[in-house]
Amino acid sequence: MTLPPESGAQGAAVLVAGATSASGRAAVRALRAAGATAIAVGSDAGRLADAFGAPATDAGAGGAVPQHVCDLADFAATERLADEVRDRFGRVDGVIHLVGGWRGGSPFTAQSDADWDFLARGAITTLRNTSRAFFDDIAASPRGRFAMVSTTTLARPSAANANYQAAKAAAEAWIRSMAQGLALGQSQRKEDPAPQTSAAVVLAVKALLDDAMRAAAPERKFPGYTHVDALAARAVALFSEDAAELNGARLDLTA
Predict the structure, then answer these.
(1) How many domains, in total, are found in the chain?
(2) Using alpha carbons only, how large is the chain's radius of gyration in Å?
(3) Looking at the DSSP assignment, which residues form a beta bridge with residue 94?
(4) How would DSSP label each residue in 169-202?
(5) What letters, b where the CB count within 10 A reaches 16 and e where it falls short, cover 169-188?
(6) Is residue 182 over pLDDT 90?
(7) Structural domain for 143, as ranges
(8) In this structure, what DSSP letter does residue 122 have?
């Protein structure tokens, strides 16, 4: 396995979408610890400030976390975000997509349109928009990575979670399509083909766990749950792994 000259997360500019969630905060911490510039993106400036403190005013502002407010379900807004991030940092090496949420637990005939709309917006629309807006950045980076979080339950879909699992299945199909696009872009140079340097990946979990959940139910075992810190560590590790092997992969993070 040969890694590109720039490998690992050190010095990478990585956008974390859904940064105010428990998994988003963990991803920002892990990326910064690895020497990356973690760019926190959320839908509310107040929640971003609560999670990360006062925002950085420029690309090199001390230890502050760069923050951007954006409705990622709006493609025009997402394109503006991409332009702002490029202007500010010069490039984007990675996107960790952590937008989503869960709705489920209802009988099949009670799978509501409202729940579907919520899940489609969070799991599919925001993913489509960020992947399109940042595709060229990921493809051009010597260590481009795009990662989303999905569910291991797709292997055995349930009636009670039909909306959720259908939305995640659509999102995974989109990522596989993105992966094929990245591979195709790398193979366009017939005379002097370049090594694959970019990858789109699915990180699959049964459910996520954070310290607040443990504190609220100390007697509970949470079997098979993946701690948000483990998810964050796995996302950071993607930048040190072979892109050709990663591209299009579905990585099971079940604890």
Answers:
(1) 1
(2) 18
(3) 14, 145
(4) HHHHHHHHHHHHHHHHHHT--SSSPPPP--EEEE
(5) bebbebbbebbebbbebbee
(6) yes
(7) 13-239
(8) I
